[in-house]
Sequence to fold (263 residues):
Amino acid sequence: MKLLVKLGGTLLDDADSRHRLARQIAAARSAGHEITVVHGGGKQMTRYLTERGIQSTFVGGLRVTMPETLDAVLKVFAGSVNHELVAAINRAGALAVGISGIDSLLVEAEQMDPALGAVGRVTKSNPALLHLLTAHGYVPVVACVAGDRQGQVYNVNADQMAVACATAFGARQLICLTDVEGVLDGAKQVRPLLTPAASLQLIADGVVTGGMQAKLNAALSALAAGVAQVRIAPGAADNVLARILAGEDLGTRMVTADWCPND
Fold:
């Protein structure tokens, strides 16, 4: 099965967590799944900027990315965070390759809003590099940085990057491992199953806001583009990836209204 696994940056900030997830990714690859990994790194980015006296500014959940911040994006997202994860997956027994959306124009973007600086909106994804790597047994590890044909570089929201890669790659599942248990309803209980209509209702009712609203919107885009199901699940749970692939109802499963269990 073709899978896209998106890892939140908080899960990668701790070495033990990073190596635990790397072992699960390597095990899934060994079991025959073709896996592409997309990762964030917002926590690491904020720390890096703070250490250099640069204040992080967010508008609508997006980090304003001026020249000094874009330099940090390349150093942190496409540099330390990416390569630490690649090294961990290699150590776990799989062969990982660290790339970003810039490589072979994997993900193309355009400026979203001049007020946000170099924050990009995805316009196109070119999956040839992902197909080439996964077909030969490698695990692509994609940092959330994109480019365009004029050589510009953009900071792209990691959830949007994951959706772009998942849809172009033809992933059957998009598994978003994060630092929360799943999507919560008004009673603060995890919703094990959500359709697009139910997701939109949670947003309209103000139950889901902020970062989780952004995740739901990204997941809805993936479902609309043909991904069979999206899972939002706790990355800290024991053996989370294997349990999801075995069909366990862990976290929140998002599906289309006409989804069937064989998808």
Q: What stands out?
A: Residues 2-171 form a domain with the Carbamate kinase fold (CATH 3.40.1160.10). The first strand starts at residue 2 and ends at 7. The chain has a mean pLDDT of 93.
